[in-house]
Write a structure and sequence with these properties.
The complex is a heterodimer. By secondary structure, chain A is α+β, with helices and mostly antiparallel strands. Chain A has helices at about 1-5, 20, 40-55, 80-100, 110-120, 135-140, 165-190, 210-220, 225-240, 245-250, 310, 315-330, 345-360, 365-375, and strands at about 205-210, 255, 270, 275-285, 290-295, 300-305, 305-310, 335-340. In chain A, helix 12 (about 315-330) packs parallel to helix 13 (about 345-360). In chain B, strands 5-4-6-7-8 form a five-stranded parallel sheet. A three-stranded antiparallel sheet of chain B has the order 1-3-2, with no helix packed on it. By secondary structure, chain B is α/β, with parallel strands linked by helices. The chains are: A alpha+beta, B alpha/beta.
Chain lengths: ~400, ~270
């Protein structure tokens, strides 16, 4: 009996439902049930009834409902009573599960639920969405718009009949703000208080909302054209001299940019027993990894894996790679280096060591020097790796010899 | 009993359409459930509600809209100015005086009569709680029209008209959506000087329309055409002001009636206006 009731609480995530089933207005939602021993028969008949009802409604499904953005895909597919019922069922099921596992129902967390489900229903499937899940309905069913009209049928929003009410109402509000700023300017002109050098909104270090972020804000899908129009209107608002009156409104649709160079994590200098400052750094290039121990007040000696760098890297190009960070900052004779490197070939080992040296040097340098090093590209790891060979071709790019016949 | 209640209560609206909107997505049970939901008070005080609904129909100008505008107001707002003679639409000739220096002049006496009947109709629709949709595709006046609609608690559509808005409403908006009961066109043309799709669609869906028709527009599909200028800001502001005042008046009158009904359900005289 308990397994029977439990099986109703397990659902597949709604992304795997087809739009056909979802089109029935939330009244009938098909459950994929687990065949656990003796409880199959009555559920199968129930699901076949539902199938018949669902199939009879397929005629009126249109392309409008096949959209991916379920939240903004038009009328709600899961009504409020349905979601509430799901929440109640989930809570009761959680308690049943806790009792089954012999734990306290009051302190049964989501992690416990996940572990219990994995124990009771072990699945060998790889796709996470195919495994059985038991989550709170708010996480399972996507957030969507409630019904847009009241009991008498009158819609709540005055732009409801345009189809894109949030977007158009946003455009309307923006234009209202622009008109308000222009009126303000006219009034100032009337009193002879108009000046060209009014306080401007600072736009440095921020960017406009992306199209996806705007869609999320409005809970509506908008097209590229609509987004472009919105940005155009905002720019027009910003072009007015006294736009600082509506600064709050504008800042709501801007996001701060993260400054790139401040992401560098500079480790503090360490001192050994003689008071000499030292720091370490590591770097990678292709399959070579290298570490460097940089010691201050040295004479510019470099040892790699115990041997002198001249013997380890007979090729000039590799030695130049090692020198470059020091030469760039003008500290050639200052540091002693002990490096260890493995993997890859001689060129990639040299590149790995170069990156390791640059990173180790950061602790000895000031902020501006760090910024110059970053702009020189010394701190960026080289992302290039060997491209894989594809089937039907000789190598990554080389095709087999083409024969006319 | 339920059917009789429905026919009485929905006499101002298109009853078969509401049920038709329901049928495509679910069985007939759903449609009647919706219909019953829209009229919660019918079974309680049908006679009194009927009296409130039918009282304005007894007097010709129940809302006294003739005092809202005069011929001089129309002239000052330049409503009589039409387009050039070459742009004239053949069906607009009855509404024109003629042309002066190549520009058509609209007969303001006829405009007065048409405007009076259009405003009267709008007032009656608003009194009965109907949905009024303001439509205009002129970008110059889009904001004014939307603000007007927002101020009087009605709806506006001054944007790109999606094809199936009226004719495919249950799919686009959801089952059980209520379509507008009146569409007011403050300009019947769209941006490429063709007739707005809404005029034809409203005629298809049996929705009455009120439209300001200029000398280059086709007045045939509009239920209550109002010959007048749709290009001047002064004229548009005049129309918006008039519609806003009409709708607000009608809604206030309705609220007044309902309050009176609450106080004295038995006695309802014409002196309450």
């Amino acid at each position: 009996m308990q397994t029977q009731t439990l099986s109703t609480y397990f659902l597949f995530s709604p992304e795997r439902r087809t739009a056909n089933m979802a089109a029935s207005g939330g009244r009938t939602v098909r459950y994929f049930l687990w065949k656990c021993g003796n409880c199959c028969s009555n559920f199968n008949t129930v699901s076949s009834n539902l199938t018949r009802q669902v199939l009879s409604r397929q005629l009126c499904v249109s392309a409008v409902l096949h959209r991916k953005n379920l939240a903004a895909a038009g009328p709600e597919k899961f009504s409020e009573e349905f979601i509430k019922k799901q929440v109640e069922e989930f809570n009761i099921g959680k308690r049943h599960l806790a009792n089954m596992m012999g734990e306290d129902p009051e302190t049964f967390t989501q992690g416990d639920i996940n572990r219990s489900i994995a124990y009771l229903f072990p699945s060998g499937l790889f796709d996470k969405k195919a495994k059985p899940l038991m989550k709170h309905p708010d996480e399972v069913f996507p957030k969507q718009r409630a019904v847009q009209w009241g009991a008498d049928g009158r819609p709540f929003h005055f732009l409801f009949y345009t189809g894109k009410q949030s977007y158009y109402s946003l455009m309307h509000d923006t234009f209202t703000k622009a008109l308000a700023v222009e009126n303000h300017q006219d009034r100032l002109r009337g009193k002879d208080l108009f000046t060209q050098d009014a306080k401007q909104i600072s736009l440095v270090g921020s960017r406009w909302l992306l199209k996806e972020e705007l869609e999320e804000l409005l809970v509506e899908t908008i097209s590229e054209h609509d987004y472009a129009r919105f940005i155009q209107l905002m720019e027009r608002l910003l072009s007015l001299p006294y736009c600082s009156v509506e600064e709050d409104f504008v800042q709501r649709y801007r996001r701060q940019l993260e400054i790139q160079s401040s992401k560098q994590q500079v480790q503090p200098l360490q001192y050994d027993q003689h008071g000499v400052a030292y720091s370490t750094g590591d770097g990678r290039r292709k399959t070579a990894t290298g570490t460097v121990l940089l010691r201050d007040s040295g004479s510019g000696s470099i040892s790699i894996n115990g041997t002198n760098y001249v013997h380890y890297f007979p090729v000039l190009q590799d030695r130049e790679q090692l020198m470059f960070p020091l030469h760039f900052m003008g500290v050639l004779g200052r540091f002693d280096m002990q490096c260890s490197v493995s993997g890859g070939g001689h060129s990639s080992q040299a590149g790995a060591l170069r990156l390791a040296i640059s990173r180790a040097m950061l602790s000895f340098l000031s902020e501006e020097q760090v910024e110059t090093m970053r702009q020189a590209g010394l701190l960026t790891p080289d992302p290039r790796i060997k491209e894989r060979k594809k089937p039907g071709q000789e190598g990554a790019r080389r095709k087999f010899t083409w024969k006319k016949r | 009993m339920a059917a009789g209640v429905l026919t009485k209560g929905l006499c101002g609206f298109r009853q078969p359409r509401i049920i038709a909107a329901g049928y495509s997505c679910s069985g007939p049970l759903y449609a009647t459930a919706t219909a019953v939901k829209t009229l919660p008070l019918q079974t309680d005080s049908t006679a009194v509600t009927d009296k409130i609904q039918n009282l304005p129909l007894e007097t010709p100008d129940f809302f006294r809209l003739s005092e809202l505008f005069s011929l001089k107001d129309l002239f000052d707002a330049r409503v009589h100015l039409g387009h050039k003679k070459g742009c004239r639409h053949r069906l607009m000739e009855p509404y024109l005086f003629g042309s002066r220096l190549g520009q058509d002049i609209i007969d303001l006496d006829q405009t007065m009569a048409h405007l009076q009947s259009a405003l009267n109709f709008t007032a009656h629709i608003a009194y009965r709680g109907g949905i009024i949709l303001f439509v205009s595709r002129r970008r110059q006046f889009g904001h004014v029209v939307e603000s007007t609609a927002g101020d009087c608690g009605e709806y506006a559509h001054t944007r790109y008209w999606q094809g199936g808005l009226l004719t495919n409403a249950p799919i686009q908006y959801g089952p059980g959506v209520r379509l507008p009961d009146l569409i007011v066109f403050l300009s019947t043309l769209n941006n490429v000087f063709q007739q707005h799709v809404g005029v034809r669609d409203a005629a298809k869906m049996n929705i009455p329309t009120v439209g300001v028709v200029d000398s280059n527009c086709n007045p045939s599909l509009v239920t209550y055409p109002v010959p007048g200028n749709d290009d001047t800001p002064a004229a548009m502001e005049l129309y918006c002001r008039l519609f806003k005042m009409t709708i607000n008046r009608a809604k206030d009158k309705r609220r007044q009636m309902e309050l009176l009904q609450g106080l004295s359900p038995a006695g309802l005289t014409q002196g309450s206006s």
